[in-house]
Design a protein that fits this description.
The chain is an alpha+beta fold. Helices cover 38% and strands 21% of the residues. Strands 1, 2, 3, 5 and 6 form a five-stranded antiparallel β-sheet that branches. Helix 2 packs across helix 3. It starts with a helix and ends with a helix.
Length: 172
């Protein structure tokens, strides 16, 4: 399985982020998903404006977790992963982190969140987990609730329904 750093480097080096202007566009946190039996990483793109209130995601893509190759890219005008929200592409949402605290605490939480995600990728979608894996998944969910606004979380949940169904079932 490719490391997330390797996947991001492949995307940038091969211009696979579909000519995204990194000064203007932001990439979401990754979310694990499945395409048939293939484990993938899914992301959405949104504006990188210097404010927390921005338009909802306008595109999304899937990367093969094993090879790091781009499997699909979709503009939401063509195939909207969040169609069931019935929102226009100009709908504004708050991407700000609900977590209270200073910038140092926020950055530490983001680093922990990223580290936990790297661990979850190793056991994602397994039918049963060991206690230590459940603790990792539980802490990941806790941090997710602190770092991702409820408005933005709706988009993450629709980006990978299978992951959120698995996480909910595993933690219940």
């Amino acid at each position: 399985m490719k490391k997330m750093e390797e996947i991001m480097m492949v995307l940038i080096q091969n211009n696979a982020i579909v000519a995204a202007h990194m000064e203007l566009e932001a990439v979401s946190y990754p979310v694990p998903g499945k395409i048939n039996d293939c484990i993938v990483e899914r992301f959405f793109l949104f504006s990188n404006q210097p404010t927390t209130i921005k338009c909802r995601p306008y595109a999304w893509f899937s990367i093969d977790s094993e090879t790091g190759k781009l499997l699909q890219y979709c503009n939401c005008k063509v195939q909207d992963f969040a169609e069931e929200l019935n929102t226009s592409l100009t709908q504004k949402i708050d991407y700000g982190a609900p977590m209270k605290g200073n910038n140092k605490e926020l950055m530490a939480a983001k680093r922990e969140f990223t580290s936990l995600y790297a661990q979850i990728r190793e056991f994602v979608f397994l039918p049963s987990l060991e206690d230590v894996q459940k603790k990792i998944l539980s802490r990941y969910k806790e941090l997710q609730d602190q770092l991702i606004s409820s408005e933005a979380l709706s988009y993450y949940q629709l980006l990978s329904k299978e992951f959120y169904a698995w996480m909910t079932k595993t933690l219940s």
